[in-house]
Backbone:
DNA sequence: GGCGACCCTCTCCGAACGGATAGGGGGCCT
DNA sequence: AGGCCCCCTATCCGTTCGGAGAGGGTCGCC
């Protein structure tokens, strides 16, 4: 396994007396344990100023109140968080802060999409703590950060698990199946007629080798979809 | 929302010199970030000696090598870990160490089963860092620890969503639903006629609050059945 | 231009599903 | 004994599925 991308500390660690130019980071995560530990670590070991928020609205409020951060870390699974939409929302806030996602489950495809949208980085919680400080500095400098081995599995999964053989509409229909909806409900959600949904459902059955909607839903779940 | 528990520096950080009678804790977790941060926190704020392991075999090897710990923390989701079996395995090792689980997903029913098996505690990762040190000390004293509100939802869920309200036949029918089988197939598997299966299916819908077989299958999966 | 995708709409039909209702049978309890 | 729960069987009916046709539409690419 390759060494993940990290930057050289280049210079000595700041003493805990922070210079006026020290980094300011906002950490938004509902896991108190992780959040508190991160604060302690970044502050004591990295000489980085931190603030925290337990959910997305708090984080947004903090930024809109005028606080300026070099970097904002968002947990992808916390109250108020809606995946990449929330990421874009925070990035669009005034202040021009850079935003990175931090994830426990670590979905490589989401990592790629986030980086594609301009996220500052994607930090799996499996990241060694030492790498974290480097990553934070790296991202605050305007670079994008993600563990290399992490993205490598992303490409492997992008071809393999094959939910990508489905068309956009078929994926949307499958999403409805997983939710236990009827064809009629799915049709309403998608703004099309029921026969159309039935067609999409039928074709996606063939693609994923299912014989009925329940099997299709279970297969989608197994694959980690939705 | 309450002020999140943040580590109040309250005085100076302990110098790294520890008392001889301090507690020794082994932390086994594959999340480097969390693990490193926990170490730093427990050592600096709690005056607790720590060792770490990135997976279950390493932890077991460390104990079998003769290391003595007051408490062992095991992540329920890490390499080599097989739920409660691994918990019992570690508890059975020589040394008589007490073992607690630490979990990110936080399944109340697993918490209760773990405590029933004699685990020292069950720590969700949503636990505030300040509570953690108290919990560790508490468990090292021989008590069992689990967050109260956590177990309260456990009881609520134990009575509520539990599949145990289903009769034997209904459970067997539900098993067929999860497999994506038709009523006719289920009937053949169970050795009964199709109308009977339809009745079981219908009644179990009411019990688990589903409206069709796909929803029932998903609910069963959510609950960890099959 | 033609070609191949993906998408949408519609019809037809047999099968399966979801729900209600009405029985009969065996245990287990008071 | 009767009462209760669970299991099994059955019939009826309206809806939904699953599968098959046969169209027409928009793209992008050769």
Residues:
């Amino acid at each position: 396994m390759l060494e993940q991308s990290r930057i050289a500390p280049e210079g000595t660690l700041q003493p805990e007396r922070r210079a006026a130019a020290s980094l300011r980071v906002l950490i938004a995560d509902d896991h108190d344990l992780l959040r508190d530990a991160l604060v302690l670590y970044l502050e004591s070991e990295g000489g980085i100023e931190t603030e925290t928020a337990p959910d997305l609205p708090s984080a947004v409020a903090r930024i809109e109140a005028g606080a300026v951060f070099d970097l904002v870390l968002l947990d992808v699974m916390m109250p108020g968080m809606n995946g990449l939409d929330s990421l874009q929302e925070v990035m669009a806030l005034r202040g021009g802060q850079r935003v990175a996602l931090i994830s426990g489950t670590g979905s490589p495809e989401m990592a790629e999409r986030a980086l594609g949208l301009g996220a500052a980085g994607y930090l799996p919680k499996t990241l060694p703590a030492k790498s974290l400080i480097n990553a934070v500095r790296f991202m605050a400098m305007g670079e994008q950060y993600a563990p290399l081995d992490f993205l490598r599995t992303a490409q492997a999964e992008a071809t393999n698990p094959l939910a990508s053989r489905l068309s956009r509409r078929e994926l949307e229909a499958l999403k409805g199946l997983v939710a236990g909806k009827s064809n009629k409900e799915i049709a309403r959600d998608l703004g099309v007629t029921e026969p159309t949904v039935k067609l999409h459902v039928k074709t996606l059955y063939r693609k994923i080798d299912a014989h009925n909607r329940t099997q299709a839903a279970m297969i989608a779940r197994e694959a980690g979809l939705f």
Observations:
- The first helix of chain B runs from residue 32 to 46.
- Confidence is low (pLDDT under 50) at residues 1-20, 154-162 of chain B.
- Chain B touches chain A at residues 1, 4-7, 13, 30-38, 40-41, 44-45, 104, 125-130, 132, 177-180, 182, 210-215, 217-218, 221 (CB under 8 Å).
